[in-house]
Design goal:
This protein has 433 residues and is an alpha+beta fold. It folds into two domains: 24-218 and 347-431, Zn peptidases (Aminopeptidase), CATH 3.40.630; 221-344, Alpha-Beta Plaits (2-Layer Sandwich), CATH 3.30.70.360. Helices cover 33% and strands 24% of the residues. The chain is built from eleven helices and 20 strands. The strands form six sheets. The chain has a six-stranded mixed beta sheet with strand order 1-2-6-3-7-19, sandwiched between helices. α2 packs across α5 (139-158). The longest helix is centred in the middle third of the chain and has 20 residues, at 139-158. The chain is elongated. The two termini are 26 Å apart. Zinc ion (ZN) is lined by residues 113, 141-142, 175, 203.
Length: 433
């Protein structure tokens, strides 16, 4: 029906916030949105139940228990659920996977995680309302995001809109500290991505100036090891013929050249630990070492460990070549080598990811929740979606909004749960038509 307020909306005059822009939603979509909203109190109860179970990455029983609760919900929505065990040597709880298969629309992979950074002896509060916020272990990172997935699917199920769709839900048990080797701990996720067209991940929605954003790119986390050798000798001969510059000056030259020559957007490289002298030892497992040397001896060895964060593999290949070139320009009497270790591949902000964000933004606007812009990719740390983003179009940051993730003050902005579930339900609906 044509109403006065809708006429104002059409003329671009401010519409009531939170009211669906009904002209832009189909009748089925309107019912789906209403269904998400109607179930909001139960959604908060589900979140409370799961937040009150400690599921630190190393608390395997807790991770499994949270997984069991979400599995029960997904069973009710017609998914086939299974628990994926990890080898005992990996010391991780495993993952929850839920699948349904059909022939309609895009095949989706929905990513969440069951674990939190808070282990059982951590003093962080359980679910606790504080004024207009709610505190709790992993409430926004990311049990809230998991509940967004469940609630969006519940509303779609009620409408019969999941029929004949292909959707895989993967809630990992070790996102906060992924088990090694990652070729095993992320194998099932990569396999699921290969059976999908699109991956959506439910890490927190970052709100900038009151507007929700979406994550179209995340930087890699990778590290490097620089080993420098010099000729040991009497300090009085430093810079001289035969003795040379020593390993410590050579390491300083290399690091300073990195600082001066490498800067570019979305790239950082940080030396985190350095050891130099006549003998050094270093333990990778606890990142601790010792160095021995004397003021009157030219150092013959230096070790530096650092990280390198980049947005695309092209950038990584190019910058690593530059670093190798700098390393190779040895001062007299020295030599050096650098090696690189990958941990999380980057999620590059591809055109496919941007297109996905457009669909999400339109769904949000159509529901009266405002458009959604891209969050600057260089600003987000590593996340699970990076293991699959090279296979499928990907979008992250679709979960709840909160402050202080990983800190004792981690909290939730309660209204963000419903908003994220509305946006997600519409996005999944449109992608699977
Ligand atoms: Zn997380």
């Amino acid at each position: 029906m044509f109403t006065f307020s809708r006429a104002l909306c059409a003329l671009g005059v401010a519409c009531a916030v939170g009211t669906a822009h009904a002209d832009n939603l189909s009748p089925a979509e309107e019912r789906i949105v209403a269904s998400v909203r109607a179930n909001a109190p139960q959604a908060m109860d589900l979140l409370e139940r799961t937040v009150n179970i400690n599921s630190g990455t190393m608390n395997h029983a807790g991770v499994r228990e949270v997984g069991k609760i979400f599995a029960q919900e997904l069973d009710k929505l017609g998914f086939k659920t299974r628990w994926i065990e990890m080898p005992a040597s990996m010391q991780r709880a495993g993952h929850l996977e839920a699948t349904r298969t059909g022939k309609q629309g895009k095949r989706l992979l929905l990513l969440g995680h069951l674990d939190t950074v808070f282990e059982p002896d951590d003093p962080v509060q359980k679910f606790e309302r504080r004024g207009d916020r709610i505190r709790g272990q992993g409430i926004s990172d990311m049990k809230g995001g998991d509940v967004v997935v469940i609630e969006a699917l519940r509303a779609l199920h009620k409408e019969g809109a999941l029929d004949n769709t292909t959707i895989t839900v993967m809630f990992t048990g070790d996102e906060e500290d992924a088990g090694d080797p990652k070729s095993i701990s992320r194998r099932d996720m990569v396999d699921a991505a290969k059976r999908s067209d699109i991956a959506l991940a439910f890490e927190g929605t970052v709100v900038v100036d009151g507007n929700a954003t979406g994550t179209v790119g995340r930087r890699s986390s990778s590290s490097w090891t620089l080993e420098v050798k010099g000729r040991q000798g009497h300090s009085s001969g430093i810079f001289g013929q035969g003795t040379g510059y020593g390993a410590i000056y050579e390491a300083a030259r290399i690091l300073d050249a990195f600082r001066r020559e490498l800067p570019e957007a979305n790239l950082t490289y940080n030396p985190g630990v350095i050891l130099g002298g006549t003998t050094t030892s270093f333990s990778e497992s606890n990142m601790t070492g010792t160095a021995y040397g004397k003021e009157n001896i030219i150092a013959n060895t230096t070790l530096v460990k650092g990280d390198l964060r980049f947005l695309t593999m092209e950038q990584a290949v190019r910058v690593r070549a530059q670093m190798r070139e700098i390393v190779a320009q040895s001062l007299p009497g020295t030599s050096a080598s650098i090696t690189f270790q990958d941990s999380y591949p980057p999620m590059a902000p591809t055109p496919g990811n941007m297109k996905l964000l457009d669909i999400y933004s339109k769904a949000s606007a159509d529901a009266g929740l405002g458009t959604v812009a891209a969050y600057p990719p260089g600003k987000r740390g590593a996340g699970d979606i990076q293991f699959v983003s090279s296979y499928v179009d990907s979008l992250d940051g679709l979960g709840v909004s909160g402050r202080g993730a990983h800190s004792p003050n981690e909290d939730l902005e309660p209204a963000s749960l419903e908003k994220a579930a509305v946006r997600t339900a519409l996005l999944i609906y449109r992608l699977t038509r």
